[in-house]
Amino acid sequence: MKVLFSNSWSKSLGLLVALLLVIASILSSIVFGVLDTTWQTAIDAYTNFSGTNEEIVIRDVRVPRALIAAVVGASLGLSGVLMQVLTRNPLADPGIFGINAGASFAVVAAVNLFSISSLTAFTWIAFAGAALSGVVVYVLGSLGRNGLTPVSITLAGAAITALCSSFTNGLMLLNERALEEVLFWLAGSVSGRSLEMLWTVLPYALIGWVGAVILARPLQTLQLGEDVAKGLGQKTWLVKIATGVVIILLAGSAVAVAGPIAFVGLVIPHLVRPLVGNDLRWTMLFSAALGAILLLTADIGARFIAEPKEMPLGVMTALIGTPFFVYVARKGISRK
Known about the structure:
The protein is an all-alpha fold. It contains 13 helices and no strands. Keywords: Cell membrane, Membrane, Transmembrane, Transmembrane helix, Transport.
C-alpha cells in the first residue's frame, strides 16, 4: 500500500500539521456559532472580562464544548483503531462491543427507575453502563474451547447491542417523560456539557490514550497471526484483555460525556492508513489527532446546517459515516 508519509521525518511533520489543525479547530469552535463573536471577544473573555453575553457564552459554553469535542474525538478515533485490529473487522466501531448500547440502556433505566435528570449524573451512569457491557462482551467472547477470537467477540458484541437496544426501546415506550429527557443525549451531542463533566472522565481517557500507545507494539506483533505472536513469546490473551480494557476506557469515557456518537471510530482508521501505513504507533497518534479534528469540524457544522436550530452531533457524524460505511462494506465484499 502506497502511503503519503513514508518515513519517520515526514510522519513527524505530518503529525505536527495535524496537531496544529486540532488547535485551529478548537479555536474555530470557540469563535464560530449562531451567536456572532470575534477573535477579540474570545481573548477579552479571559483577559478583560466585562460580563457581556458574548463573553459568557465563550467561557461557559463554547470553550467546554470545544475541549470536550476534542477529547471525545481523540478517544473515539483511538478506540476505532483498537477495535478494528483486535476484531480484524474493518467495520468495527464502539457500537460493535455493545458499549454505546450499554451506556444508553443504563441512562434510560436510571431515568425510569430513579428519576435522574442531571447531565453530570448521566456521565457516571453511562460510563458504568458502557464498562459493564464491555466486560460482559469480553466474558461471553472468551467462552468456548478457542477462547477469545475475533469472531466470538464480534458476535458477543452484536448480541449485547441487540439486547440492550431492545430493553432501551421498551423502557422509552413505557415512559414518554424519560424519552423527552434522554432523547438529545441518545442522539449524541457535546452541547450543554460543562467542564466538570470533562474533568470527571478525563483521567480515564488519558489512561486510555497512554494504554493505546503502549499496546501499539504488541498489537503489531499480534497482527502477524496468533501462532506467530505466541512463537515470539507473546502472551496473546493478556494483550487481548489489556486492549479490551483500554477500549472500554476510551469509548466508555467518550459515550459518558457526549452520548453514543457513531461512525468516528469506523471512519478515522481508514483515513489514517493511507497516510502512515500499517505502523500502529503512528496510526494511534494520527487517529487521535484526526478524530479530534473530525468531531470538532462536525460540531461546528451542526450549529449552522439547520440554523437557527442545532442538529445533534450524532446526526452529523452519521451523515459523514453512513456513506463511508457503505463504501468500506462494498469494498470488502468486492475483494471476496
